[in-house]
Amino acid sequence: MHPTRRWLSLWTRPLGDRRWDVLIRATAAVALLGIPTVIAFPRLVPLVWLAVVSIPTNSPLSPILPTAFEQVIMEAAKYERAIWVSLVALGGYMYMEYLNWHAYAWVMNWKRFASFQSRRWVQRSVEYFARSPFATVVFFAFTPFPFWVARCLAILHHYSLRQFMVATAVGRFPRLYLYAWVGERLRVPTVLLLGVIVAGAAAVIATRLARGQRVLADTVFDREAEAPPSDQSDDDSRKAGAA
Question: How many helices (H) and strands (E) does the chain have?
Fold first, then answer.
């Protein structure tokens, strides 16, 4: 095979779990684009560094790095204006969110999740979401509530990806700018920011290990995949009650 074709096939051929495959490829793509940018504009190093780090901190690694992205934004704001930091952070976040949407949609099409989607509480959640999908996405994007909830509901509702992305940007930008503004004004010592990142990760990892869960397990899908189907669980519950 010609070296060029071999190189292209390496970048286009799916490898392993699509969620981790997307993370590795996305991080590599941003890093490669950042190299010529830094060479041409050396003063943009903090923003390029922020763009690269924003990929893993909003990826399948984010559940074990719950406090990383915000601290990275505050650190970058020491070297660049808050508006530029927040815009770059938003760009990295939206890029990863677009990939997360497709990765989640791919996982949710697995047959093993058919029972999950048919559960009553899931269907009722989708119905509530359908009443005001745009506002719901904005709310979850702005608040500290786990955003994967809004992402899952939007996918189950077959909500427009374009509207979802717009709503996400509307809700997320003020939040990112707030962190950048605080970082620019207060200039929190790097050691303290690192301490918050490490403490958050340690708390999540310790909790998962104590519960016997895999450290890198997805918050929803890996746990759901290991659980018995709802119909089987209901049958087992009825049998136990009858006994």
Answer: 13, 0
